[in-house]
Amino acid sequence: MLDIHMFRDNHEQIRADHDKRGLSHEKIDQVIHFDKLWLNLQHQTNQLRQQKNTAAKGISEAKKSGDEAKAQAILAEVASLGAEISQLEAKTQEAIEQRDSIRMSIPNILHPEVPQGADESGNTVHSTYGKKPEFNFEPRTHNELIEMNKWVDLKRAAKIAGSRFFFLKGDLARLELALQNYAVDFIRKRGYTFVQPPVMMNRKAYEGVTDLGDFETVMYGIEPDKYYMIATSEHPLTSMYMDETIPEEQLPLKIVGVSPCFRREVGSHGQSDLGIWRVHQFTKIEQIVFAKPEESWAIHEELLQNC
User: Fold this and answer.
1) Using one digit for the tens of pLDDT, what is the confidence trace for 97-142?
2) Residues of CATH 3.30.930.10 domain(s) within the chain?
3) Would you put residue 99 in left (φ > 0), alpha (ψ -120 to 50) or beta?
4) Residues 282-298: tens digit of each pLDDT
5) What percent of the chain has pLDDT over 70?
6) What is the CATH number of domain 144-306?
7) Contact, 226 vs 205, CB < 8 A?
8) How far is C-alpha 181 from the geometric centre of its chain's CA atoms?
9) Which terminus of the chain has fewer CB atoms gathered within 10 Å of its CB, N or C?
10) What residue ranges of the chain are covered by domains with CATH 1.10.287.40?
11) Quick one: 4-104 is in which CATH superfamily?
C-alpha cells in the first residue's frame, strides 16, 4: 500500500503511473478527499478535547475555591461535549477506514523500465533461458501420464471434497516432495531462511498484504473464527513482521517459504477441467525479500536468477 504522504506531497507521481497503466484518477482523488476529511475531523476532535480538559480544570478550581455556582455553570456549558466528541471520533474512524480501503486498491508505482502498452500485445521479452527440447516421439499430456500411471485420483477426492481436489499418489507424490526439498536447498544456499508459515490468517493481517475486495472471492473463509485459508505463502510471509520496524542493518531479509495454498479457482471449460489444472489446493514455493526500495530492482533480478 502506497504511503499516505505520497498522496499528500507527491500525488502527481501516482497520477503519472495511473496514466501509464491507463487507469482513472478517481481513486487517487477519493484517497486525497478522505485524507483531508480525516485530518479535519481529527483537528475538530482535538479542539473539543482541549475545550473539555480546560473546562474540567476550571470546574476543579471553582470547587476548590468553594464557588459551586461557577462550577455548575461551566459544567452546563460543556455538558454536550462528551457526545460531540464521540460523534466526531466515529466520523474520524469512518473517514480513515474509507481512505485506507481505497488506498489498498491502488497499485504500486511501476519501475521506469516497465514497457507501456494497451494490452498483452505490448509485453516485451525480458530474457530467455535454456533451449526448447526436441523429442523423437510424441510427448504425452500430463492428463495422459497421470491416468496411465494411476498417479492421481480425482474421483475419490471428489467424493470427500468436491471437484478440483485430488489424491496425489505413488512416484508423483514422491517427486513433488523431492522437488520441494531440492528447491528449498537450492535457495537456502543463496542466503535465504527456510520458513513454513501458518495456513490461516486473520482479516487484519490479510488486509495488510492484499486488496481483499479483489482477492476475497477466490479465498476460503473459516467460520465462525473469521480466518482465511492462505491463497499463497507470500501472504503470511509478507505479514510476518506486521506492526514491527525492521532495523535497516538487518536488511535485506531473505525468506523461502513452502506451504499448501487454497483457492476457489474457476477455470474455463475444456482442457482446464481435466487433470490437475486450476485446482483448489496445491503446494507452492515462494521467495520473499524485505529490502530498501532502492534495492528492489536488483533484488527482483536475483529472484529471477534463483528461478
Assistant:
1) 999 989 988 998 988 888 888 778 888 887 888 888 999 999 999 9
2) 144-306
3) alpha
4) 999 999 999 998 898 89
5) 97
6) 3.30.930.10
7) no
8) 27
9) C
10) 4-104
11) Serine-tRNA synthetase, tRNA binding domain (1.10.287.40)
Q: Which three cell numbers stand for residue 144?
A: 495422459
Q: What is the pTM of this model?
A: 0.74
Residue 39's contacts (CB-CB under 8 Å, 6 or more residues apart) are none
pLDDT of residue 91: 96
The pLDDT mean for the chain works out to 90
Most confident of the following: 48-62, 160-174, 202-216: 160-174
Helix axes 170-188, 142-149, angle to 10 degrees: 120
Q: Give the integer Cα–Cα distance in Å for 35 and 108.
A: 19
Q: Which residues of 196-212 are buried (b: 16+ CB within 10 A; e: fewer)?
A: ebeeebeeebbbebbbb
Map residue 90 onto helix, strand or coil: helix
Which candidate, 288, 215, 189, 206, places its Cα nearest to that of 246?
288
Q: Which three cell numbers stand for residue 14?
A: 501516482
